[in-house]
Task: inverse folding
């Protein structure tokens, strides 16, 4: 690998600097930022939230800002004119659409919006729709206009009163009976981007979120029998005796969203992640060696782990905590210590449609009552959703515009953590919610294999970097931003080496913590850390729809002809080697058991449109029948290249990319070509399917 | 006669006519070959010269080669339905044809089975049994379209308001069990219709069906328990197959042995199918409808 030593030294210095700032200090950073204080009361009878919020918003740009845009996301559930439900109707991948049943609607009304001096901005309120295609009835984004602009460095104090009807559990938030998962529920300003204006997208079917970091204090009032969990730390609980309610106050600095859950049926369990117990000195030293930073800089913080779990899943409490510990440990060791003091893991309330979703310092997992031990569930969802705390929570990219930066990186890192902590997992199959894994031994797999199997299919539909709601359909969105992006990152890891990959992700994490990075920022980090210009890698695989497929199309070994016919100059005279003469010479050579020479021709081809770039080369390995091997390199720019070998043995097989670096290759089967075919594997696979067909036919014959 | 005695009689009859189970197995084998052959040739063209084929043999890289394979054939998925559906329907109709041979030979006093007498019975009863199949479809629709739906609707009232996943687990399995039991009743009913057509050498499928209501109406539970007893045999074979599957080493050396075990299991299914007919035949012979 062409690794620039000078850049390595530069980078290790950079990392040292980045890590010299302890995380606690990072959280206490007193630079001016947005502040929320929210009071909300749950009206369980009418499924309503009655709230008010005080927002302090600071203009940290050089622009004079005349207006402010807000997300009003509960209006996505208001009627079928909302962008989300319109998109659901337009969705071409049928099973992934949404339907709201009668009576299940949700909405949010801004009752009043005032400046600190009492001036009411409500008359200036209007709903905004700027995402193409326009959905004129959408009410998920509103703006208000200030009487005078907010100048650079100035702040604005807003007091907002709102009422929300909670939707029945459908998409990430809602209620079912007395269970609530409340997300995207309060008026939340968009992100103001200097020179560009407000970045405030509508609630889309295929997208997650984007908001600014802020300090939150939230007071949640619920009936006294409810168990509550929320983003941040609970700082007090006050009983309101006459009303038979309790007000819980939660607080957290430097987060960009706030979610909470309330359910009388939750069990609340707290455990501690004690770094010194969970991580050995050897593990710290190993990571420090791999990252070229001092051991002190990789030390983890203790974290309070809070689990809200449904009673029927009580037997899985340990599974939940084990997975969360593994996530805190490996994300922390590899990508940087978890900076917050708490993490709350919520077993999603039944039928609230809120499973497998991340919010700052809080996430929802998801499990079933009957679970097999050899399946990595709920472990994989716990590790994945906790991991979002890093790639969406801390490096808070715009998920509307560059979802892969969160989903792709996190799918990749989930696979890494899962493999390290648990090894391979079995396929999950169930019948009538009973795990078939109890009866059948299912094949095992690693996440990177599953990601590749899914990710190669969508290459020609959309580039990974497409805006979330502009993908061909939800399947293309999911397969591209999760699986294809993860497979590309696995490819990148194999290309630059696992240690460099960890350095890349750690550098990206530490450089952009509490910021809003873009794809170009990630590319810059990759180039900085690897010491190579890998921009082409992203252009070919992330920004385009080019299929990557290199392979071997031809392999042949033939005996080199020592004696050939024709006229030859010999001692100044012309001599003709006739057919007869050549045959007799060959016969003689065979009788004398003279060493034969073979010419082997191999043709390597670029079947796909995607091309290697920069300093990248593909390895071509030829293995001969006598066991010898030869390696050649190919830059792979042209469509095909012929390689010739002259050896005393015939070729056994030729293989391009023998180390399987290019996992993103959509046809790994054609990466190798044997001179002689073999069929034992094909027989084996066919026989399995054959038996399935026999049984299926017999099943159908039951109708006869 | 007691149920166990009837079961024993049926058992003896099947074992004396074991050749028929071989015919049924051979037909299943042939149809399955037709379905599977294109897959074999596709796999061969894609993988026989690839090193991935070696991994397939070892049971490794499942998702890698499957991913490759699906990527290759994804455009042909709609055609796959046709490829599967046509042999499936043909197999269904062919089994209606074969049922004639099976019941005909069970009912025959001659124990000697030959291809000629087997297939002549197949031909003799095919159209009668085809008519029974059409009536069966009506019965099937009534039971599953009406009775099963009604029962499901009642059960789903419970799941609709469930507060945990337990009711969903219980109800979905209960529904499955009910579906199985309903299917066993419908199947059993029309088995007796066919048997009656053979015993009485009648061509009147509708009349036999109506008479069968009277016949089964009188001794439904006895007939059903006998039927379920044979069903239990099928279930035991299935469990046995699974047990061996779990303990069997899946490497190359045992591959052929395992394949033979699978074929033995398929054969057991044919044998059980005959056992259904033969126990029902003895039950019907000893309990005439009039």
Result:
């Amino acid at each position: 690998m062409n690794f620039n030593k000078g850049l390595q030294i530069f980078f290790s210095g950079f990392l040292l600097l980045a890590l010299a700032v302890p995380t606690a200090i990072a959280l206490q950073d007193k630079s001016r930022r947005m502040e929320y204080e929210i009071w909300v009361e749950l009206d369980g009878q009418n499924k309503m939230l009655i709230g008010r919020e005080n927002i302090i918003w600071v203009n940290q740009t050089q622009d004079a800002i005349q207006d402010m845009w807000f997300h009003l996301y509960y209006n996505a559930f208001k009627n079928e004119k909302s962008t989300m439900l319109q998109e659901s109707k337009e969705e071409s991948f049928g099973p992934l659409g949404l339907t709201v049943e009668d009576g299940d609607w949700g909405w949010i009304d801004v009752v009043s919006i005032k400046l600190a001096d009492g001036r009411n901005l409500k008359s200036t309120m209007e709903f905004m729709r700027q995402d193409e295609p326009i959905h004129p009835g959408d009410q998920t984004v509103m703006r208000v206009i200030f009487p005078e602009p907010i100048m650079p460095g100035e702040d604005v104090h807003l007091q907002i009163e709102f009422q929300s009807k909670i939707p029945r559990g459908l998409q990430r938030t809602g209620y079912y009976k007395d269970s609530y998962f409340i997300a995207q529920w309060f008026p939340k300003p968009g992100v103001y981007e200097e020179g560009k204006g407000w970045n405030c997208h509508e609630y889309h079917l295929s997208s997650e979120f984007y908001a600014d970091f802020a300090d939150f204090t939230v007071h949640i009032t619920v009936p006294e029998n409810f168990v509550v969990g929320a983003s941040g730390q609970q700082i007090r609980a006050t009983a309101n005796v006459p009303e038979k309610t309790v007000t819980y106050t939660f607080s957290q600095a430097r987060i960009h969203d706030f979610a909470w859950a309330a359910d009388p049926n939750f069990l609340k369990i707290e455990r501690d992640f004690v770094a010194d117990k969970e991580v050995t000195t050897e593990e710290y030293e190993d990571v420090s060696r791999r990252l070229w930073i001092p051991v002190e800089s990789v030390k983890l913080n203790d974290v309070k782990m809070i689990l809200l779990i449904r009673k029927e899943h009580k037997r899985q409490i340990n599974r939940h905590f084990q997975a969360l510990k593994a996530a805190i440990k490996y994300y922390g060791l590899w990508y940087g210590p978890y900076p917050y003091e708490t993490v709350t893991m919520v077993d999603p309330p039944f039928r609230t449609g809120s499973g497998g979703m991340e919010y700052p310092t809080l996430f929802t997992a998801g499990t079933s009552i009957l679970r097999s031990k050899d399946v990595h569930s709920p472990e994989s969802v716990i590790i994945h959703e906790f991991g979002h705390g890093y790639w969406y929570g801390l490096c808070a990219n715009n998920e509307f515009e560059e979802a892969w930066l969160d989903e792709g990186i996190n799918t990749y890192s989930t696979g890494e953590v899962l493999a390290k902590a648990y090894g391979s997992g079995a396929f999950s199959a169930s019948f009538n919610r009973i795990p078939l894994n109890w009866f059948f031994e299912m094949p095992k797999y690693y996440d990177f294999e599953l990601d590749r199997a899914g990710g190669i299919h969508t290459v020609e539909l959309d580039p990974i970097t497409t805006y979330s709601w502009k993908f061909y359909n939800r399947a293309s969105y999911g397969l591209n931003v999760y699986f294809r992006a993860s497979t590309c990152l696995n490819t990148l890891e194999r290309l630059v080496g696992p240690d460099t990959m960890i350095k890349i992700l750690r550098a990206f994490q530490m450089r952009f913590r509490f910021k809003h990075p873009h794809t170009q920022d990630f590319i810059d980090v990759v180039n900085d850390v690897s010491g190579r210009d890998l921009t082409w890698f992203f252009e070919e695989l992330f920004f385009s729809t080019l299929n990557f497929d290199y392979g071997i199309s031809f392999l042949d070994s033939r005996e080199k002809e020592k004696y050939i016919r024709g006229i030859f100059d010999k001692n100044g005279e012309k001599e003709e080697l006739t057919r007869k003469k050549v045959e007799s010479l060959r016969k003689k050579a065979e009788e004398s058991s003279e060493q034969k020479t073979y010419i082997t021709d191999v043709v390597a081809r670029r079947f796909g449109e995607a091309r290697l770039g920069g300093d990248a080369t593909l390895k071509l390995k030829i293995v001969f029948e006598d066991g010898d091997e030869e390696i050649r390199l190919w830059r792979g720019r042209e469509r095909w290249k012929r390689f010739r070998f002259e050896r005393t043995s015939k070729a056994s097989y030729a293989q391009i990319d023998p180390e399987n670096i290019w996992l993103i290759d959509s046809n790994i089967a054609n990466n190798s070509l044997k001179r002689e075919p073999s069929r034992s594997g094909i027989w084996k696979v066919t026989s399995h399917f054959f038996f399935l067909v026999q049984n299926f036919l017999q099943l159908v014959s039951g109708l006869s | 006669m007691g149920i166990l005695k009837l079961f024993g009689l049926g058992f003896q009859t099947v074992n004396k006519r074991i050749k028929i189970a071989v015919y049924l197995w051979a037909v299943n084998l042939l149809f399955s070959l037709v379905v599977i052959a294109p897959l074999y040739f596709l796999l061969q063209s894609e993988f026989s010269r690839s090193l991935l084929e070696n991994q397939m043999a070892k049971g490794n890289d499942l998702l890698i080669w499957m991913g490759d394979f699906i990527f290759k054939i994804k455009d042909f998925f709609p055609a796959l339905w046709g490829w599967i559906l046509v042999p499936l329907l043909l197999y269904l109709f062919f089994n209606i044809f074969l049922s004639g041979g099976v019941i005909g030979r069970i009912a025959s006093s001659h124990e000697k089975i030959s291809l000629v007498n087997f297939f002549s019975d197949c031909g003799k009863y095919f159209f009668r049994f085809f008519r029974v199949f059409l009536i069966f479809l009506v019965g099937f629709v009534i039971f599953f379209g009406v009775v099963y739906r009604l029962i499901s609707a009642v059960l789903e009232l419970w799941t609709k308001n469930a507060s945990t996943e337990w009711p969903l687990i219980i109800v979905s399995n209960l529904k499955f069990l009910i579906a199985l039991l309903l299917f066993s009743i419908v199947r059993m009913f029309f088995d007796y219709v066919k048997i009656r057509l053979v015993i009485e050498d009648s061509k009147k499928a509708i009349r036999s069906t109506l008479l069968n209501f009277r016949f089964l109406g009188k001794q439904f539970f006895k007939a059903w328990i006998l039927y379920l007893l044979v069903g239990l045999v099928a279930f035991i074979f299935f469990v046995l197959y699974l047990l061996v599957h779990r303990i069997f080493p899946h490497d190359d050396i045992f591959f052929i042995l395992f394949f033979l075990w699978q074929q033995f299991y398929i054969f057991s299914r044919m044998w059980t199918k005959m056992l259904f007919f033969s126990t029902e035949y003895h039950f019907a012979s000893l309990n005439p409808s009039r």
Residues 18-286 of chain B form one domain.
